[in-house]
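quick q for whoever's on today - can somebody do inverse folding on this one?? i tried earlier but teh output was garbage lol. tokens:
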């Protein structure tokens, strides 16, 4: 008995049968004596379809109108799920993000949640209704609709769980939990019983889309324990929490791939103090997030600087640097991907990096860039090699250990 937040992703509500399947899960949770707040995403590929519709009209839509458009997907899901719940005798009411009290900053398309005013949700719960909330959306100070970025419904669910101090936050999806690699690409991937917030945050940021990274950040901040589980198979999923029991156990928790990588090389950068500051402050002023940075040793008073960013930012990054006149000898390469391993255990073990590189070497995969932190190692390689690399690294460091 308690207050439970249950989030269902797009594939879990993609058609009539799936909506009734979700309705049954929710109704059973409610029947067991719990208050239930449900967060849903747009059905199936609705968000992608809406983006395609916008592209039929213009290639440069304003982000305000994009948010207006994209938020409609979740609005369909909440109404249909509430109808399904009511039709099976479970009283439910649907609320859009703004009806549910989601206030965000002004940034259309990747807004951040400022607060959730839970009065309306609470008054509906007091009337013993299941509350079905549209994920991914809120309202900014201008009373305009905003969206939270792709995969943002996970963040909506965690924000509600934190604001309501829910007893549980369950993220239902189309796989049975968090695996050691994408189970659709790596058949030998294992489901994890538990994973720490820190490890999950790295995995999500490095490409494991099963949870949105901002949702994990928020869960860690407010200590909201998450349970990732399947909406189709009623088996235990993966718990994401601050401290796990197997701290001395698995060395590597997961292997992730991110194909959204652009590698930009700027040649003939003056090899003098302050040159990196000048270059990267230009990018920071335009909110371009730079990931891995590599610098060559200087020769003839010059050096080369290579960095990675999201492909969507690459054109702007090149333009900003070229406008300066000082950095016009540059190339952007979109044919790369980042493959990473994550695990708190590697802090106290040597040889993890060399095993990762051995797996790549055995498969004749060339490494362009390397970056490490205490709990992750990432390599930039050719995108065409990335799936093979994930499997080879997984075999070497997870499956055959
Ligand atoms: P939802 O629509 O429920 O939000 P997503 O498509 O966003 O679901 O995320 C679930 C998908 O994440 C899975 O179908 C799986 O292919 C992918 N995935 C990638 N990496 C992992 C991983 N390490 N563990 C589980 N799933 C993963
Ligand atoms: N519908 C949105 C998307 O496709 C939000 C979500 O699914 O979480 O990105
Ligand atoms: Mg998702």
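ok took a stab at it. sequence:
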């Amino acid at each position: 008995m308690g207050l439970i937040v249950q989030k269902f992703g797009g594939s879990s509500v993609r058609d009539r049968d799936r909506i009734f399947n979700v309705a049954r899960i929710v109704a059973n949770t409610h029947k067991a004596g719990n208050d239930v707040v449900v967060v849903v995403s747009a059905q199936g590929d609705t968000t992608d379809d809406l983006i395609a519709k916008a592209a039929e009209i213009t290639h440069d839509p304003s982000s305000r109108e994009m948010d207006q458009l994209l938020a409609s997907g979740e609005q369909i899901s909440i109404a249909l799920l509430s109808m399904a719940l009511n039709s099976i005798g479970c009283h439910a009411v649907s609320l859009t993000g703004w009806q549910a009290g989601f206030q965000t900053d002004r940034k259309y398309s990747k807004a951040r949640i400022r607060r959730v005013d839970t009065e309306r949700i609470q008054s509906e719960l007091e009337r013993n209704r299941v509350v079905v909330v549209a994920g991914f959306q809120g309202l900014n100070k201008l009373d305009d609709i905003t969206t939270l970025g792709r995969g943002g419904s996970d963040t909506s669910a965690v924000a509600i769980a934190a604001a309501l101090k829910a007893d549980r936050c369950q993220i239902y999806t189309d796989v049975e939990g968090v695996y050691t690699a994408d189970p659709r690409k790596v058949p030998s991937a294992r489901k994890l019983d538990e994973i720490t917030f820190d490890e999950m945050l790295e995995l999500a940021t490095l490409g494991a889309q099963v949870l949105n990274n901002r949702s994990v950040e928020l869960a860690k901040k407010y200590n909201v324990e998450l349970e990732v589980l399947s909406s189709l198979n009623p088996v235990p999923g993966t718990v994401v929490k601050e401290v796990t029991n197997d701290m001395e156990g698995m060395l590597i928790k997961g292997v992730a791939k991110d194909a959204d990588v652009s590698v930009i090389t700027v040649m003939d950068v003056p090899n003098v103090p302050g040159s990196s500051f000048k270059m990267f402050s230009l990018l920071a002023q335009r909110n371009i997030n730079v990931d891995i940075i590599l610098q060559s040793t200087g020769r003839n008073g010059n050096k080369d600087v290579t960095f990675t960013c999201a492909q969507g930012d690459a054109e702007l990054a090149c333009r900003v640097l070229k406008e300066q006149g000082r950095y016009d000898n540059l190339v952007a390469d979109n044919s790369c991907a980042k493959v990473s391993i994550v695990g708190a255990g590697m802090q106290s073990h040597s040889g993890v990096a060399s095993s990762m590189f051995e797996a790549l070497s055995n498969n004749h995969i060339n490494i362009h860039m390397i970056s490490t932190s205490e709990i992750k190692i990432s390599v930039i390689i050719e995108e065409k090699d990335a799936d093979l690399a994930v499997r080879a690294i997984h075999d070497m460091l997870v499956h055959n250990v």
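fwiw DSSP finds eleven helices and 18 strands in the chain. also The mean pLDDT is 95. so keep that in mind when u check it
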